[in-house]
């Protein structure tokens, strides 16, 4: 009897080691058959105890597997608070599908968007009486920049007050009191004097107020015509300047132009409205071609191309050097995503990976690197609009390594 029971225990132990949880049903069938054999040998009680123990042991790997899976799922995500993200320099960018040739590159320079830039240059001789801003200051529309005055400005303001007063008097007269030509002449003279004040950059509200308070003749506050940053500020207190002298420049830096020099071969790939990639230092921006000179420089043998580029946060500034990457032709087959090299790290098995952000948490995803040039990498393996960490990925990789796990997304 003992020999048979030992044989049965060996059989059951071997089945438990050989079969995994999915084979639990087949185990029960085999155990039932074994139970019948033992019953014939009057060992029913002992077999029932063995069956209960085996079922309890078989359930243990299932629970451990579930617990392990839940733990792994939690470890797939890295969470950082706001302070940690700032200290690590975490910067995230949303990917868009691109087809740029990293070898088709042209040198470029950032310049101000001339559609969003105004030069402050009153068209009368003037004197700087007071300054209200400093170079580099961000101002809002209507904010005082300078107080200017002078003999010519005083004369222009006096002429306007006289002309406006005369025109108001004529308008109140009964029709036919004076000839139509005289009426027209007086009206034109009033508008001429108004236009001169507008030429020295007085606002309509200032001109209207001037007519009601002649005591303010001789000076006025020069107000900012747009929201922008003060640049090229040359105005000095007490300085007397000729008409048309630029005093300062206001630039809205939310958009910039990129002035690139292209070879004739590269210029042949240029179409108006076509997308390009602009790299400034470690930052990349999408741009749109808005113009080309259609003229080859005799000195550089290049053609000038203009690109308009958004500049959120005013991070970039006019005067910085840049690189312009041209899109492939329309038949291109190489489509993917371009990220800075800083976005790439190595996984535990040596594969390239990037960190993506989902609901404020970060996880690593393996990617395929197709090409690397000039600090940029052309990758595949992601979907459009994925939020990828382009700065601070090394910190996340370090946190991943410290946690003692390796993330893959095969």
From TrEMBL:
Write down the Pfam families for this protein, in alphabetical order.
Beta-barrel_RND_2 (PF25954), BSH_RND (PF25917)
Keyword set, alphabetical order = Transport
The reply on keyword Transcription regulation is: no
Domain CusB-like beta-barrel: from-to ranges: 256-328
Specify the superkingdom: Bacteria
InterPro entries tied to this protein: Beta-barrel_RND_2, MdtA-like_BSH, MFP_Cation_Efflux
Q: Which residues are in the Multidrug resistance protein MdtA-like barrel-sandwich hybrid domain?
A: 117-251
Q: Write out the similarity annotation.
A: Belongs to the membrane fusion protein (MFP) (TC 8.A.1) family.
**Stated name of the protein:** Efflux RND transporter periplasmic adaptor subunit
């Amino acid at each position: 009897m003992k020999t048979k029971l030992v044989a049965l225990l060996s059989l059951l132990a071997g089945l438990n080691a050989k079969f995994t949880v999915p084979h639990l049903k087949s185990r029960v069938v085999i155990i039932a058959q074994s139970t019948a054999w033992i019953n014939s040998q009057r060992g029913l009680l002992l077999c029932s105890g063995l069956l209960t123990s085996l079922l309890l042991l078989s359930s243990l790997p299932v629970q451990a597997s579930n617990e392990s899976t839940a733990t792994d799922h939690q470890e797939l995500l890295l969470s950082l608070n706001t302070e940690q993200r700032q200290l690590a320099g975490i910067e995230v960018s949303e990917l868009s599908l691109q087809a740029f040739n990293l070898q088709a590159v042209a040198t470029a320079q950032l310049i101000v968007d001339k559609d969003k830039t105004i030069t402050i240059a009153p068209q009368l001789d003037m004197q700087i009486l007071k300054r209200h801003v400093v170079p580099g200051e961000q101002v809002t529309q209507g904010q005082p920049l300078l107080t200017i005055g002078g003999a010519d400005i005083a004369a222009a303001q006096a002429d306007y007050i006289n002309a406006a007063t005369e025109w108001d008097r004529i308008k109140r007269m009964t029709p036919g009191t004076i000839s139509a030509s005289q009426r027209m002449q007086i009206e034109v003279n009033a508008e001429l004097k108004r236009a001169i004040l507008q030429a020295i950059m007085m606002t309509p509200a200032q001109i209207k107020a001037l007519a009601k308070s002649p005591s303010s003749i001789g000076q006025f506050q020069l107000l900012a015509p747009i929201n922008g940053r003060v640049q090229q500020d040359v105005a000095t207190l007490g300085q007397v300047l000729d008409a048309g002298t630029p005093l300062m420049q206001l630039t809205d830096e939310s958009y910039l132009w990129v002035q690139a020099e292209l070879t004739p071969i590269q210029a042949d790939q240029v179409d108006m409205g076509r997308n390009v990639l602009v790299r400034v230092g470690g930052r990349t921006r999408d741009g749109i071609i808005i113009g080309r000179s259609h003229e080859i420089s005799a000195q550089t043998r290049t053609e000038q191309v203009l690109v308009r580029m958004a500049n959120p946060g005013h991070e970039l500034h006019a005067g910085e050097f840049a690189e312009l990457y041209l899109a492939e032709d329309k038949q291109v087959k190489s489509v993917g995503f371009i990220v800075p090299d800083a976005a790439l790290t190595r996984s535990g098995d040596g594969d390239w990976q990037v960190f993506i952000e989902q609901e404020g948490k970060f996880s690593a995803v393996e990617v395929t690197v197709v090409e690397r040039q000039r600090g940029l990498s052309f990758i595949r393996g992601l979907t459009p609009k994925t939020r990828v960490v382009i700065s601070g990925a090394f910190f996340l990789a370090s946190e991943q390594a410290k946690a003692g796990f390796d993330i893959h997304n095969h």
